[in-house]
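Researcher: I'd like a candidate sequence for this fold, 187 residues long. If you have to choose between options at a position, lean toward the conservative one.
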C-alpha cells in the first residue's frame, strides 16, 4: 500500500511523536498499518520529515536511517509510543518504560557518527524524544480522540482534542452531526 507523506502525517508537534505515529490504528489488529514497513515509504520519510515536521527547522535536512540501524530505529519508535502513551493515559512516569526509552535513545546515538551531516532521522528522533522526556509541561502531551495519535497541544488554553483539526476534528464533528440528524429524523 502506498500513500503520500502529507502535513497531517506530521501533526504530532515533535519529530519523536511523528515517528511514533507512523503506526496507524496501533491497537486495532485488523486495521493496524505500519507506514514504515514499506521500503519506499521508509526511504521517503526523512525527506518528508525535513519539510513537514514541527522540528524540521531545527534539524535541517534529514538523512535516511542507515540499513544496519533500522531495527534500532523501529525499537526506538515503539519505546517512544509506549512511554509517552503511558504518561498521557496515567499522568505518571513508569520507570521501566522510561528506562527502556532512554536505552533505545542511547543505542541510536551510540551507533551514529558524531556530527553526521545531514542528521539521520533516527538520531533526530532520539534527540526529539529526549527533549520530550525533559519537557517542563508534560500536560501538553495528548492522545487524539479520533485516531489515537500522540500530539503536543500548543494551544493557549490547552484544550485541543485532535491531532489535526482539518482531518480528525472535522471527521469527529461530521460524525456528531450525522448522529444528531439521524436522531432528529427518527423522532
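Model: Candidate sequence:
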Amino acid at each position: 500500500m502506498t500513500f503520500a507523506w502529507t502535513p497531517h502525517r506530521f501533526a504530532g508537534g515533535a519529530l519523536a511523536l511523528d515517528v511514533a505515529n507512523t503506526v496507524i490504528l496501533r491497537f486495532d489488529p485488523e486495521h493496524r498499518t505500519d507506514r514504515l514497513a514499506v521500503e519506499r515509504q521508509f526511504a521517503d520519510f526523512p525527506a518528508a520529515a525535513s519539510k513537514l515536521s514541527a522540528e524540521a527547522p531545527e534539524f535541517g535536512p534529514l538523512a535516511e536511517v542507515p540499513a544496519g540501524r533500522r531495527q534500532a530505529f523501529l525499537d526506538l519508535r515503539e519505546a517512544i509510543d509506549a512511554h509517552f502513551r503511558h504518561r498521557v493515559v496515567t499522568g505518571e512516569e513508569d520507570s521501566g518504560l522510561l528506562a527502556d526509552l532512554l536505552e533505545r535513545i542511547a543505542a541510536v546515538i551510540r551507533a551514529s557518527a558524531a556530527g553526521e551531516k545531514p542528521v539521520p532521522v533516527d538520531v533526530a528522533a532520539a534527540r526529539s524524544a529526549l527533549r520530550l522526556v525533559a519537557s517542563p509541561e508534560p500536560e501538553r502531551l495528548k492522545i487524539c480522540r479520533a485516531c489515537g495519535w500522540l500530539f503536543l497541544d500548543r494551544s493557549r488554553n490547552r484544550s485541543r482534542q485532535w491531532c489535526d483539526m482539518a482531518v480528525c476534528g472535522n471527521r469527529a464533528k461530521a460524525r456528531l452531526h450525522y448522529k444528531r440528524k439521524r436522531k432528529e429524523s427518527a423522532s
